[in-house]
Amino acid sequence: MNVIINVIGPEIRLKQEIDLELASPTIREVARSLLDQHKGPWERIVKNDLSLEEGCVALVNGRNIMSLEGFETKIHEGDEITFTVLVAGG
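The structure assignment produced for this chain is given below.
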């Protein structure tokens, strides 16, 4: 399954298409696969226990996974997954 992975944070900016072989197509399995099989800047946002660092969010096609099904959000071919640091301003 091909997905696009974005990582946006302090000193990090990445957009990369990655081919993943997933046991079940969820954001949890994407995170597990990224940590286990693909080294990259997402390691600064996704913890080894598959949770996110404090102040970080994961988006699927621009929608926060917490407004979807959390880490059980289904992933489809071509989806765009973004790991980012929350930013606020005024």
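Interim note for the steering committee: Helices lie at 27-37. DSSP finds one helix and five strands in the chain.
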